[in-house]
Sequence to fold (351 residues):
Amino acid sequence: MKLIDLLHRWTGGLIGLLLALLGLSGAFLVHKNAWTLAPHADDRRLDDISQLATVTQMLMADPASRPQSITYASDDFGLLRLLYTAGKGAYADQHGTVVLQWNSQWERPELWLFDLHHHLFSGDAGKAVVGMAAMCGLFFVVTGLLLWWRTRKTFEWRLVPARMTRPAIIRHHRDLGVVVAPLLLLSLLTGAILVFRPMAALLFGPDAPAQIDRSLAAPPPLTARLAAHLDWARMIVTAQERFPDAELRSLTLPRKDSGLITVRMRRPQEWLPNGRTTLWFAADSGVLVAARDASTLPTSVKGYNLLYPLHAAKVGGLAFRMFMTLSGLALTLLGTLAVWSFWFRRPKRRS
Fold:
């Protein structure tokens, strides 16, 4: 138990601030659509497929001003998000009129905060660091519960420490940690698995990672260049005809010379905000190449697709968003006070 206590304290003292940063940014991102300020953000989502097809054709028709991707309006955010190269982007209303533009993610707090939380502004390397921090957080929760059990009879609920002394901070840290442990486990476990897909084996079995990779893979690349002029409206109509009950979520141009235009849709039974129901169209002709119905995916893959909605509180309404906000704020408090007590409130050694 002494070894566990030593590892818990030293690891917390070293990465507590990183976990606090992830917790605080996550608490803000849970409510991102509510505090993103832009004209027409409160508009009701349009589900008229002919209108969506017309708007898509208008936005994608000119190769010189064509965005790399369109994310369509949702029930809680009434704007289209257009992303271009070099970090540029724009918001457009559901009739295709651009209402807000930016030349860098630093001009939009919702964008740089998302990058901070997911990548620490460092791309894939930062994403790996975030995943390792989440794994350390899981270690803290498990070992913290073991260490709390010895002192369970002294449990006392406090939102903040009674005093800013090391014993009071440690006692508060221990008791608050056990209260929010279920929420922290949910946040940290889902976050770690989303970064390190092989960890899905912990929840869905040893074959799950390979099955997820196979099921979510795109079709083989095509040797096709993106045509200057395509019938974009017809692609949208084709997607809706293939999945009549699905909500149109995004359209993305080919990546890494794949030769495939990707359209994502969300069927009613899906929790994932942008869905996993996907259609691929040839970049040179706009002909449908392949389609994937999320309702037919293996059970382990469907389970994996639930992780992000749970992590980001995209289900459960305001009540679940508040629970996940509590998780983020608790992680912030636990992380900062752990570092404070470890580095600045250590007892002085007697000579």
Remarks:
- Strands lie at 69-71, 80-83, 89-92, 98-102, 247-252, 260-266, 277-282, 288-292.
- Residues 1 and 117 are 33 Å apart (CA to CA).
